[in-house]
Amino acid sequence: MTDIKKKVQGLDPNITARNVKDLAEKANNNIYEALVVISKRARQISQELKTELAQKLEEFTVHSEVIEEITENKEQIEVSRLYERLPNPTIIATREFLKGEIYYRYTDGNENNEF
């Protein structure tokens, strides 16, 4: 699993307007194809982040018999806040798409495209 946190350092977490023509040029002048590629990559990134966060929070899990006993762990809170501050997976995927870091192919075997 890649470390997405290092990958997105310096990336503005705010949504910015994109030129649709730039997206379409990267996908054989087909905006719908570009959006499908970006959305599928965003889902992958989202799943990776979710898995990574769950693994890190699992370290802080305390298994006890008493339900009322709840303790705050400052390290756990910091890990959660770090993941909350990361840019949206769609923003990350769009950046990867525009930089040509995404490889995709058709499943029917007629066309292969590499960015």
Note down, in words, how this protein is organized:
By secondary structure, the protein is mostly helical. It has one domain. The chain has 5 helices and 2 strands, in the order αααααββ. A two-stranded antiparallel sheet has the order 1-2. α3 packs antiparallel against α4 and α3 packs across α5. The longest helix is centred in the middle third of the chain and has 28 residues. The relative contact order is 0.19.
Q: Report the principal-axis shape.
A: elongated
User: Helicity level, as a percent range?
Assistant: 40-55%
Distance linking N and C termini? 21 Å
Major sheet strand order = 1-2
Cα-based radius of gyration, to the nearest Å: 19 Å
Specify the oligomeric state: single chain
How many discrete structural domains?
A: 1
DSSP, total strands: 2
Structural class: mainly alpha
Helix count, DSSP H or I runs of 4 or more residues: 5
Return the string of H and E elements.
Answer: HHHHHEE
**Biggest sheet architecture:** 2 strands, antiparallel
Mean pLDDT: 80
Low-confidence stretches: none
> Strand portion, in percent?
5-15%
Concise account of the structure shown:
The chain has helices at residues 4-7, 20-25, 31-58, 74-85, 89-99; strands spanning 103-105, 112-114. The protein is mainly alpha-helical and 115 residues long.
Question: Which SSEs are present, and which pair or pack?
Answer:
Layout: H1 4-7, H2 20-25, H3 31-58, H4 74-85, H5 89-99, E1 103-105, E2 112-114
Antiparallel strand pairs: 1-2
